[in-house]
TrEMBL record:
SMART domains: HTH_ICLR
Domain IclR-ED: 69-240
Pfam families named among the record's database cross-references: IclR_C (PF01614)
Taxonomic superkingdom: Bacteria
Protein name: IclR family transcriptional regulator
Keyword Zinc-finger: no
Keywords: DNA-binding, Transcription, Transcription regulation
Lineage: Bacteria, Pseudomonadati, Pseudomonadota, Alphaproteobacteria, Sphingomonadales
InterPro entries with a match to the protein in the record: GAF-like_dom_sf (IPR029016), HTH_MetabolicPath_Reg (IPR050707), Tscrpt_reg_IclR_C (IPR014757), Tscrpt_reg_IclR_N (IPR005471), WH-like_DNA-bd_sf (IPR036388), WH_DNA-bd_sf (IPR036390)
Amino acid sequence: MAVKRSSSASRVLKVFEEIAASQPIGVSALARVLEADKSAVQRDLMTLADAGWIRGAVGASGQWELTPHVLTIARPPHSTDSLRQRARPALERLRSETGETAYLTVPDGDQFVVIDAIESEHLLRMAQPVGMVVLVEGTATARAILPHLPEPEQERLLGRGVTSAMREEFRATLTRGYAVNDGEVAPSAVAMASAIVSRQGVPAGALVLTGPAERLTAARRPEVGERLRREAEALTQAVG
């Protein structure tokens, strides 16, 4: 028997997530973005405020922002914490050996999120802050992880059917051991990723390197990609 979901609880969570993404933000803007009734959104705001999750933004009347209370639930260890700790030395080696920004992403619903990062020391560098959302479309993370998923899950994440060209690209990625995004998300920026896959074949995340195209040249990418692949394979033991 299917369990009925709470639509009001779902809306409260959406309000909370939108505040986190757009803070400070007011009730009218929230209602417009969420396509929800303004009075209902106002009730959700009061519920979140009374519980200590949000507060009125300083110097911005009628605007809301998150309180530090969210940090209290971010600290306890969870299933990704072990992976983050074990991946840290790999990130340090990758940054040291390549000179580029190295970071770790993990699946988060219909997207991915950065849970650790070490920035390049170059003046011109790409910065991926912890907590940054990584979308599916065109990203190196998605291109590295999708080939390890069953086709129905690939289609769900992509929001469309998998074409023969995509299947060919997936096979090539599996053979090579890493994926590349060459300026398709940010012009002149290259990202390379290798999936961290458990012994059961389930993708747990991806190691990613990113930098300017002038440094991550086509000639250099096979050597960098091989480093990524080796580090990702070594992390298999971290996810069981």
